């Protein structure tokens, strides 16, 4: 399993190294026709290695002995915990959808009128408040268990 982790690490390091090289030498790099295929091959190697690590890691974890008796998690408790996490996740998605157009409009307004910066921050804060409301709801629901 360590060779799969090493393969994944080398894959990511190669991708980062190529990105740094292309960033610092943009004029000297010819049009890489193989770059798109290389990136896809790198992604494919990473995905296969990640799947192998998950498969082999699950077998190693299942082979270990239980350390200490823990509290049993029933189906009802597991569904309750999933339901508690749901408001945070959905609220974060909603905040992201709201922040996209609001942020781009705020940048356009600030570029034309810099004195409108304070108002645009208020609008961005209102859009971000959606995620905070979801987090508060999850915390309140977690206290009910």
Summarize the helices and strands and which ones pair or pack.
Layout: H1 2-24, H2 34-63, H3 75-112, H4 117-142
The structure class reads mainly alpha
Contiguous runs where pLDDT drops below 50 for at least 5 residues? none
Q: How does CATH name the architecture of the largest domain? A: Up-down Bundle
From the 3D structure, determine the CATH topology of the largest domain: F1FO ATP Synthase
What is the CATH class name of the largest domain?
A: Mainly Alpha
Task: Please count the beta strands (DSSP E, at least 2 residues each).
Answer: 0
Biggest sheet: strands, sense, closure?
Answer: none
Number of helices: 4
Proportion of strand residues: under 5%
Q: What is the radius of gyration?
A: 24 Å
Short description:
This protein has 145 residues and is mainly α. It folds into 2 domains: 2-63; 77-142, F1F0 ATP synthase subunit C (F1FO ATP Synthase, Up-down Bundle), CATH 1.20.20.
Protein described:
- The protein is an all-alpha fold and 145 residues long.
- Helix content is 81%, strand content 0%.
- It has two domains: 2-63; 77-142, F1F0 ATP synthase subunit C (F1FO ATP Synthase, Up-down Bundle), CATH 1.20.20.
- The chain is built from four helices and no strands.
- It is flat and about 65 Å long.
- The two termini are 39 Å apart.
């Amino acid at each position: 399993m360590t060779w799969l982790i090493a393969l994944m690490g080398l894959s990511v390091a190669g991708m980062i190294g190529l990105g740094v090289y292309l960033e610092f030498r943009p004029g000297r790099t010819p049009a890489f026709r193989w770059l798109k295929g290389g990136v896809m091959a790198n992604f494919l190697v990473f995905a296969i290695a990640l799947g192998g690590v998950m498969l082999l890691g699950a077998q190693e974890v299942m082979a270990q002995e239980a350390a200490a008796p823990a509290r049993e998690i029933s189906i009802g408790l597991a569904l309750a915990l999933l339901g508690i996490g749901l408001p945070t996740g959905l609220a974060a998605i909603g905040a992201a959808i709201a922040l996209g157009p609001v942020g781009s409009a705020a940048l356009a307004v600030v570029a034309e009128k810099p004195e409108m910066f304070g108002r645009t921050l208020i609008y961005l804060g209102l859009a971000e408040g959606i995620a905070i409301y979801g987090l508060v709801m999850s915390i309140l629901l977690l206290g009910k268990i």
